[in-house]
Amino acid sequence: MTEEKHLGYKGEALQHLKEAKAEIGDIIRIVNKGETYEGILIPRAEYGDDKHVVIKLKTGYNIGVHLTTATRIEKVGAGTKPAFVAPPLPEQKPSLPKVAIISTGGTIASRVDYRTGAVRPALTASDLYSVVPELSEIATIDAQILFNVFSEDISSKHWTELARAVAKRIEEGEQGVVVAHGTDTMGYTAAALSFALQELPAPVVLVGAQRSADRPSSDAATNLTGAVVAAAKAPFAEVVLAMHEAPSDKTIILHRGTKVRKCHTSRRDTFKSVNAEPLAKVENGKVVMSTQDYRKRNDSRKIVLKPDFEQKVALLKFHPDFNPEVIDFYVNEKYQGIVLEGTGLGHVSNLCLPKIRSAVGKGLIVAMTSQCIWGRVNMNVYNRGRDLLTLGVVSLEDMLPETALVKLMWALGQTDAIEEAKALLKTNIANELSPRTLSEANTS
What we know:
single chain, 444 residues, alpha/beta, Rossmann fold, 3 domains, 5-stranded antiparallel beta sheet, 10 helices, 24% strand
């Protein structure tokens, strides 16, 4: 294993560094093919080759320099091993609104692990506050870390614990709550909190980042600042998701928690409202509403907590050559519900009908959504849709498949009675169902 002063380097690269007497954190100059590069020597991923040396330039960007027999490395100055030390917390201003930041992990609370080259959970919620001192001018922050996991590890058990933690902070008098969360499953958690936290008196704002806080292009600070502004100042009392509206840092858009989807793997404006307009945006430190149809903030309103979710619910995407016996697996495993992502207006192949009939007959709730991004299910147009309705499949109109999965888990967590759960599933609780489809989809 490479010693700490040359972490991640081996072979030819390690030999160059030893000859230059350069260690991690030192300032070095590399002359290579007529070009000169100068910066701080930083660790390499342990899985990297031995033909590159990585330095951090004065601009803050990292570059890897390919080594040749003609490459010369010179130590310019001594340095210290890179480490994150959070600056001291800025002074709190008691006159400002009280906002809680609850951290669950994810990229917004991550830093690069130079051992592997990946990002890892590292920052606590207090760290987030300390590295964005502008927050001290917006609200009085009380920060806590609830989990320290990436979003792919979040489960319905986490939703339950998170809902209880948010409710507790609101009951203690916080005027808004921010939840720092990984982006990959943040849409699911936003939907879960939308159903679990009812009669909200104040905003609950989920926020994430596409790029970790130590990258020059990070969106963590901008997103967090916008989220805190929304939590402290927004006139609404709903669950929303706050992220970049566009690739630039000008505005943070606020999407309703049941109408939002992650649409790009890496863009900072990855989240889009689907089948609905965004609720609001944060621009120049102010909340600008996009609609007047929202639940208004009311500090005297008492929150109603319904945090239970049934885990045995499946989301199945129909596709050509879909094997209907997959449905049998969930029936045999005692699942209580299945959400289908059908084609177009809500269809699956004829081969699926017997298996769906059997599942419904054995007490499962089977519901239909569309794998199309925009539009709504209409199972009365074609014979196949009407056949499915006859079998007892529940049409979920324009509900997103992810939201439908969460809502069915939630509905079955509230009652053991199938008809009551179906009634909850079809009741518009948190704007998950739109009364009409937008005439023009926002695909930008």
